[in-house]
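Illustration 12: Deoxyribonuclease.
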Amino acid sequence: MTKKSIIGAFNIKEFGEKKFNNDDVMKIIVKILKRYDIVLCQEVHLSEELIKQLVDKVSTSSIPYSYVSSQPIGRSSYKERYLYLYRSNKWNVLENYAIEKFCNKISRVPYVVRFQNLKKTYIRITLVGCHTHPDNAYDEIKALVNNVYKDIKAKLEKKDRFSFLFNVFYCFGSSCISSNDNEPIIIMGDFNASGSYLNKTKQTELDKILKNNDLMWGIGHSSDTTVASKCNAYDRFVFEIKNKERWIGNTRIFKFDKKLNDKKLSTSVSDHYPIEFELKLDIA
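Figure caption equivalent — predicted structure in token form:
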């Protein structure tokens, strides 16, 4: 049986104290979050104390969760946190940071978290969470590819060169942690990449930009990631083509409202569906 971790991204609409105190809504949100080994949450307006309470709600004695969170991010008066919840018995955080150097290009700058698998320490993954501004979706997605991705990739290549030299000069025997020159980088989140925010012409232009950078969409243009009646693929993954087959299994949209049969309750949870993919762990 293939070993895998399920990784998700979920825009939990206006996730603040009011929603947190709604027991019916929170039961559904907690159940959704428990699906994932790692999940990026967006539109988070919770205090640090409420985030800790959320982690407690999601955790059990056998499946503990931890978190890393950005500070409230945004150029305007509207700001939101990026929040990553992760199973602390499976994953460890190596580093996390907001990429402030591109704040002139992206309204809510990306929040990057690099994870390492606890059992297979050579398995590492870099997740780049971003919630683009709907009025500037095309330019911000373009910046995510041409600026943010290239910057992160260059940093990882530098770390990998250092790791290689360390192993050559200082590390002997089987106790050394092997370097992984194909550590996947996943860009993920609500990109507003559809509908009136990103027409077909702009989508086609982005297709070319991704291809020129050896990247691909993980969620297609014809997909539906919204709870609303209209079909729009706002939420996306961007995968590296060279790493797609090696690291990425099934990619899905979790339509949580199908089992609720309660439209009002569904829309109270969010106007977005979570998106998710399987990360393969059977890597030699």
